[in-house]
Every structure is written in C-alpha cells, then in structure tokens.
Amino acid sequence: MGRVCLLLPSVSEGDALGHDVAGMFETFRAHGIETHVHAHRSPGRTRLPVDSMRRYARCARQPDTVSIYHLTTTWRAGCDHFLSSVGPKVLRYHNVTPPRFFAPYSETLARACALGFSETARIVKSGRVDLYLAASAYNRDELVQLGAPAERCGSLPPFNAIPKLDETPAAIPVLERYLDGSSNILFVGRVVPNKGHRHLLGVLAALRRTVVRPLRLILVGDLQPTCAAYYQELVALARRLAVDDAVVWTGKVASDELKAYWLLAHAFLVMSEHEGFCVPIVEAMAFGVPVIAHRAAAVAETAGDAGIVLDGLDPILYAAAVETILTRPEVHDALAARGRARVRQAFDPPRLAERLVEQVVPLLAQPARTQHTG
Amino acid sequence: MTTPLDVGEIMAEIQRLAAARRQASAAGGTAGVAPQSPLPIDRCTLHADLAAPVAIPYGGMRRWALHWLDRLRARALEAILRRQTFVNRATIASLEKLAAQIAALESRLAALEAARAAGRPIPERRSEDG
C-alpha cells in the first residue's frame, strides 16, 4: 500500500481547515495508511506532525503517493508541486472567497483570492486530478462550472472538532461574565467582509427597538490585522446604531472559551454573504443552539432543515426570527432537537471518516491520471 | 420531549411578525414587547449559586481544591445550560460534597490557627480526618 500526503499552505489548529486536515490525518492513520502533512508554514501550535515541502517533493516522485491538496486561497508553490506529482491527485476544495469582498479593504487579500481562483482553474484545466472532493454541493457545482468532470466530483463535509469540544470544560470566567440574564445572540467567524457583520449589527439595532429584554451580540472570531479598516468601520457603525454597548468582540478564542460561548448562546445568527460550507453552523446545531441563517452560497445546504433560512438581508425579518426563538421556547427546543439530529445524521466524524476512506482508498491501488482529459 | 416543528408555519409567523414590526417602525413607534423567559431555566439564579466564592487559606491544598471546584463548576454549569438534568444532579452532588469537604478543612485550619495564636498545644491529627 502507498501513502497519503496532505498539502496545505499553513497549518493552524483551531480553524476549519486545521480540523479537516487533522480529521483526514487521523482517519488514514487509523486505517494503517502512512500519512504525512506537508505545509509551507505552521504558525500556530499544532498536534499534527508537519513535514516540509522538500520532503513532499521526494514523496511526490513515488507513483503510489496519493496527494490531497487543500485549496482555500493562493499557494503557487503548492499548486506547482501538486500538479507535478506522479501519483494520484485529489483536490480538496474548500472554496475561495470572491475578491470583491476584500477589494475595498485590502488589496493584498483581494489579490490572494483572485490568484486562488486562477490556481483552481489551472488545476481543473490540467485534467490531472483523479478526484475532486468538494466541501459542499455548492463547491462541487463551482468546480463543474470551471470544467471539472461531474463524475469525478464528490463531496464530503469537512471534519469538525465537535467531539473534542464536547470533552473540553467550558471557561468559567466567560460563563460568569455573560450569564447575567441577557439573551446572547452569537456569531462565530473571522472578522472579514464576506461574513456580513454589518447586517448582524443592523439586526441587533432592529431587535432593540422591539424587545425590552437585555440583548447582547457576541462576535467570536479573529480580528484580522489585514482587515483592520473593515473592523474600524464596524465599530463606527455599531456606535452610529447605538448598539455598541451590547456588542462583544472577543477576538480569537481558546477552545474552552469557544465552548463557553456555545453554552451561553440563545441563538446563532449567520448573515454571511459567502461561505463554502460554514462549520460554525454545525457546531451550533451540535450544541442545541437554534440557527437563523441568510441563504447565501453553501449556508442553506449546511443548515438543511434544522435552521431558519431566510432570503434577503432585511434586518427586521431576521430580528423577527430571533424574537420568535427568544419568546417561543417550543420553537427553540424543536430547532435544537432538529439540529442535534442533523449533526448525528450528516456530520458525525466516524461517518465522515467512512466516506473519506470509500472515496480515497481505491486511488491507492490505481495509476494516476497523467493526460489532459478535461 | 419536543413538539414537532412545522417550519412553514414558523416561517409564516416570522413574516407576519416582521410585517408588524415594519409597520410599527414606519409609524415611528416601537412595539416594546417583553418576551417570556427564553429558556425554562433562570440562568442568573444558577449563576449566583454556583459562583459563590470559597476561601481556603492553604497554599497547595487551596489550589488543588479550586482547580477541582472550577472543573466541577464548569461541568455543572454546562449540564444545566444543556439541560441535562440527570447529569446535573450528579454533578451538583459532587460539587456539594467537595464544598462540604473544603468547609471542614477551612474550619479545622481556623481552629489550628486559633490554637497557635493562643499558645495552646496543637491537637494531634485524628485518624478519621483522613
């Protein structure tokens, strides 16, 4: 039997990509398959053994090496290495955020996204990919539109860290700070423009006009230095809407703190304008937090029938949905039960592991696609 | 046991509520509705009960006890927030037992301190003290 090499630009524990790579690594290792993780850099603390790209170059010369390339943004060198590998190739497509979201705030990020798109197109057009493993049906459709053959496009939701989060004791200081009788509306995601933070602030303002009970909007997510202008714009907007006293910006949080925020939440509100999957929706459902979501990109398919998915971005409509959940315990409970059931049925890590093995292991025994076949 | 959810009905209800709110907003007023308690648990009360500080003036033992107390409090709060009432009772029982042990330890330490301050001989440790 050969080996599997997982390629990604940067390994960071605690983000969706890191959990997906860790899930794949553990799955292949559990099946007795030699597995390596290769990254350009590993900025954070990680429990994964990360090998260099130089070592990958050696593995890539072996015909029995299956390379799985995790694509989220530009990585020119990784793309070159992947395409020149001799063995079977799998493109794990997490999606690339359209550059238009970043253009007003960061030229660098907008350019990185544009390059990410062109590298995706280049990989697809090479015709050398044996399997496309999209994180959602939305992502799969995008690959097919770029020219990937539909019969070689599979989908597999990303691995999640819910079992580990479940075992982690919640951070007491966070629980103590926010268990004060307020209703906590939560969003989890990096502070970047496609996540629709300004819509969340608008909903909070609309809610405060109608709901007397104290409300709080907790925004959990890394404040990106490259998008500082976006954050400043949001802070100013919160002040203008007179909701700044009820908004909590946590920045990046540790897993015990994240657990605490899930326990504190009365509703999870996601108004992103672009998501290739949206792992926090799965976490919300696992913790029995009702999901209210904007129908954009892959969001609706991730929430399935377990969330309230709304069209458009009218803050009053979303405020009405939040108000319904806050005031109707039976709706809250029914959505919570549906969410838990959906996680068991669609996002349970052992089931994801089975699906991964079913799709990738056959490649270990077959020669790679070397010709341009579209 | 949860009641089955009719998503269509809930969506229609949300649309009706939004329409009412829009109308109120256009009229320049606010409905000002105070919702019922969102969850059947009063989180504030539980918070006050579980966050009661426990003072133990004893270095290593204090740190050890507080560490476990924190873990138990985390578990108890989590169980309550997730409404796992069965687990909750068991966890709270452990918490109460630990709190009682800490209180007994604190009282014994206070007696020792008082004896030392008064120049009385310090009583010998009894076997049942563990």
Q: Which percent range fits the helix content of chain A?
A: 40-55%
- Rg of chain A is 21 Å
Low-confidence stretches of chain A: none
The top level CATH class name of the largest domain in chain A: Alpha Beta
| SSE run of chain B | HHHH
Overall, the morphology of chain A is globular
Count of helix runs of chain A: 15
Major sheet characteristics of chain A? 7 strands, parallel
Largest pleated sheet of chain B: none
**Which architecture of the largest domain in chain A would the CATH scheme give at its second level?**
3-Layer(aba) Sandwich
Mean pLDDT of chain B: 60
Looking at the chains present, what oligomeric state does this protein adopt?
heterodimer
Global morphology of chain B: elongated
Helix content bin of chain B: 55-70%
The total count of helices of chain B amounts to 4
> What is the helix/strand order of chain A?
EHEEHEHEHEHEHHEHEHEHEHEHEHHH
What does this structure look like?
Chain A has helices at residues 16-30, 53-59, 76-84, 107-126, 137-146, 162-167, 172-178, 197-210, 228-240, 255-264, 279-286, 299-303, 315-327, 329-346, 349-360, and strands spanning 3-10, 34-41, 50-51, 65-71, 89-93, 131-134, 153-155, 183-188, 215-220, 247-251, 267-270, 291-294, 308-310. Chain A has 374 residues and is of the alpha/beta class. Chain A folds into two domains: 3-160 and 349-365, Rossmann fold (3-Layer(aba) Sandwich), CATH 3.40.50.2000; 163-346, Rossmann fold. The mean pLDDT of chain A is 92. Chain B is an all-alpha fold. Chain B has four helices and no strands. Chains A and B meet through helix 7, helix 8, helix 10, helix 13 and helix 14 of A and helix 1, helix 2 and helix 3 of B.
